[in-house]
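Per-record layout

source: Phyllostomus discolor
name: 10 kDa heat shock protein, mitochondrial
length: 138
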Amino acid sequence: MRKKWSFSQVHVSHGPNCWSLLTATAREQSTNSGSQSHGRQAFRKFLPLFDHVLVERCAAETVTKGGIMLPGKSQGKVLQATVVAVGWGSKGRGGEIQPVSVQVEDKVLPEYGGTKVVLEDKDYFLFRDGDILGKFID
């Protein structure tokens, strides 16, 4: 027997093919809406739950502004990250859903740590919405 839930227009089927159904549904929504502004799409078979945010850390600078190439040991740790996928939010005390404060493609400053997630041989990090310290405004 399969159960269906609906969260922010994303349908998840509980069963042996759960991930493929989730990805197909999310892909269909992104082509219908034409944009990722609401940021609730699955990212390569991964959809963060509740108030979690999936980010990709930006690459470290290898050349200074003056044109000097930096060796690997001299490159600092990159703190800035790009939001790749977000969950639908968390439940408030009254039962209402509080949406996540960031959207897909936002440049953010996450707290140290996070949970490392490897998807298709790339490293991503999973944070709670409250662990995002701020976002950069262009």
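summary: The helical segments are 18-33. The CA atoms of residues 53 and 86 lie 4 Å apart.
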